[in-house]
Amino acid sequence: MLFFEKAYAQSEYLPLDHDLNSRIGGMINSLSSNAHTSIQPYEVSRLGSSISYDSMITYKREYTYDGKSWIERKIFSEHLLDVHTTDYRLTFDFFPDVGIGYDLADKRMTWLHTRSFEFAGNIGDKFSFRTNYYESYGKFPLYINKFIKKTSVVPGQGYIHPYGTDEYEYDLSSGIISYSPSRYINILLGQDKNFIGDGYRSMLLSDVSFNYPFLKLTAYVWDIQYSIMWAQFQEPTLKVTDKKWWPKVYGVFHYLDWNVTNRLSLGFFEAVMWKAVDSVYGYRGFDLNYLDPLILFRPVEYSMGSPDKMKLGMNIKYKVSDQMSFYGQILIDEWTIGEYIKNRGYWANKNALQFGFKRFDIFNVRNLSLVSEFNTASPYTYSHRDPLTAYAQYEQPLADPLGANFYEWVTIASYQINRFEMRAQFNAAIYGADTASVNFGQDIFKSYDTRYRNYGNYTTQGIKTNLIIADLRLAYILNPLLNLRIELGVLYHSQSSNLSSDKSTWITLGLRSSFRNLYYDF
Predict the structure, then answer these.
(1) How far is CA 18 from CA 27, 136, 161, 330, 372, in A?
(2) I need a labelling partner for 491 at 20 to 30 A (CA). Which of 45, 120, 179, 236 fits?
């Protein structure tokens, strides 16, 4: 399949960013578009448009700045360094992210200081790369600080190095190399994140957790996009201070997306994960049985007597109009048909569901968009007999950050006028929390062998906990190429049960930059 011909287009990839997706969403989800939208990051040349990478990044940010001096252009409209010829282009940028905050409920000052840079470029039409580095220092509101103290990980951003009371240093590096030998093939090598789905959450594979190394091959044939990804995950452990000895877990992911029509698309997903060192098999490393990019995992598992756990899933999207689409997902972790029919709450009938819709230019108001979705996962979904092979990376789930045993509703509205952008998000969830001694199925890092019972299981069993999050952000865009902005934010977080109640109101103000998703809504 690796034959060579004149390149189809440049092989650059967009960063993972929900706000960027919202701005380009009306274009790539229109009835005239046949773009595959359910696997991210997006390859620019595959979005059904001849728009360049920079134009895609600044899409719907058409305002210009007429400054004449060098420093004005660099702050408001250009890359810091931009070298390009007919054969290649190289760019270099700094991404400041500094700010202060205050948690009204806990009377707690917070702050953030991030120094980061990005070096990117392309050579010819077939090869591109991008690398980022973030060095951060910060202090967080109490509910996030509790998570950090428990896991020693800042959500999605890396392992901590304490240097003060509730103050942390942490760093993150990412990079991708993309090569397209022909119009039908792309090879992506990276230390980054991936996302499968059309919504805000993904029940199949999300970008909630920390970066991981991966190799992804993608083929484009007819109206089908087929990807296979080999990845390595790891779980930090407080008992081991040397990162190279942290337990390693490998994963293989298949995803086939079929645009049945310009309105309907169907995606088919399967994944399997295994430990590098197994108590039964000894040292396995990367299992060559999973190397074939065209196999189905189930026959392989049976043939090798594998202890690995396979997951199957499906993604569906239907475009009602240019401005509106519905989407959904189903994931099957384990399923016994006989027990499902009997409806006795069998513990091993583990699944997750999603249903949502997107609406662009609501009431014909330009740049006013809405996404609303419902997510749920039954008890013990994503968990495994061995906690190290849970569906997770760096102490966070590879799907929804709530883990399992929950119902969740998320609604996000965004609006843009000139350089001002507003984003309002509301989350409401109910989940059944575990106790210190009883595993009700919410914590995916617990072995399902410690389950509460075999029958009579239902979603939200355990300590029923209500979670409410309201997040409002107002930003003034300085440089659209860098997403450089002055941002004011207010986040309300309430978590309550019969045993406890925690509330936070977190006000922040800062100079923000970069394109990436950070999830504090859990």
Answers:
(1) 15, 22, 29, 21, 13
(2) 236
